[in-house]
């Protein structure tokens, strides 16, 4: 199964993608993490950091190339959960021509929730696991559950970058909804409340898809 999560920054894409990955036992592909790992590498478009540090999207050609390469890895042969990709119509069409998705979850949240979630977000600089001080806290304050590294704030979680990312989302990513609606695979999810309430809606859709696959 190939699944993607789209939504504004702070909508909970990474958290819900991880839960989906656990349920289906298929890996998550988080484009933001891949770019963070290579952010100072020089490409013909400049370094990823130049885009990430201003809240802009890296060029489609670069991210499409990275994703194409990743998907050649055997680990993705059984399926993939995309977190943060696609983010533009060009990326969606590129993916659709090569590896069409089965379902796209659009996580819908109001603006004031976005700001709150970003302000309270922490990340592990080692394994990239993400936390929220209220909704998804680590077991030990300030320490990653998975690898024990001290948690930090993401470098791009500043007010100025967040505003730019919300603007970019409105201008470029929202148009994806129409694309996926036309493909007939868009699922709108109310993501304003807590993690488990959002997860319950997603799980229900996945289980319905699995049931209909078994019947067909
Ligand atoms: P994220 O962790 O998903 O918020 O991504 C962090 C940053 O990486 C974004 O603000 C973009 O600059 C870049 N990025 C991640 N995914 C993509 C993508 N699919 N297309 C373009 N830029 C991306």
What does this structure look like?
The chain has 216 residues and is an alpha/beta fold. The chain has a single domain, classed as P-loop containing nucleotide triphosphate hydrolases (Rossmann fold). The protein has nine helices and seven strands; from the N terminus they run E-H-E-H-H-H-E-H-E-H-E-E-H-H-E-H. The model has no long low-confidence stretch (mean pLDDT 93). The site of adenosine monophosphate has 17 residues, from helix 2 and helix 3.
Task: Give the topology.
Layout: E1 2-6, H1 13-24, E2 28-30, H2 31-37, H3 48-52, H4 60-71, E3 80-83, H5 89-98, E4 103-108, H6 111-119, E5 121-123, E6 130-132, H7 159-173, H8 175-183, E7 186-190, H9 195-215
Parallel strand pairs: 1-3, 1-4, 2-3, 4-7
Antiparallel strand pairs: 5-6
Helix pairs in contact: 1-9, 4-5
The structure holds adenosine monophosphate (AMP).
Adenosine monophosphate (AMP) is lined by residues 9, 31-32, 35, 51-52, 55-58, 63, 84-87, 91, 165.
Provide a brief overview of the structure.
This protein is 46% helix and 13% strand. With 216 residues, it is α/β, with parallel strands linked by helices.
């Amino acid at each position: 199964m190939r699944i993607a999560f789209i939504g504004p920054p702070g909508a909970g894409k990474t958290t819900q993608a991880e839960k989906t990955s656990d349920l289906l036992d298929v890996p998550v592909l988080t484009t933001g993490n891949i770019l963070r790992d290579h952010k100072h590498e020089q490409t013909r478009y400049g370094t990823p950091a130049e885009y990430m540090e201003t809240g802009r999207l890296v060029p489609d050609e670069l991210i499409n190339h990275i994703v194409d390469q990743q998907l050649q890895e055997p680990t993705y042969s059984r399926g993939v959960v995309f977190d943060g990709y696609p983010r533009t119509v060009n990326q969606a069409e590129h993916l659709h021509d090569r590896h069409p998705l089965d379902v796209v979850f659009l996580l819908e949240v109001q603006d004031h929730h976005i700001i709150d979630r970003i302000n309270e977000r922490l990340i592990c600089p080692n394994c990239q696991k993400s936390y929220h001080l209220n909704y998804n806290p680590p077991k030990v304050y300030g320490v990653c559950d998975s690898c024990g590294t001290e948690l930090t704030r993401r470098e791009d979680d500043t007010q100025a970058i967040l505003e730019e990312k919300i603007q970019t989302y409105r201008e470029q990513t929202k148009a994806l909804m129409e694309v996926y609606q036309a493909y007939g695979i868009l699922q709108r999810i109310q993501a304003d409340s807590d993690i488990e309430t959002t997860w319950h809606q997603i799980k229900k859709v996945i289980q319905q898809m699995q049931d209909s696959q078994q019947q067909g």
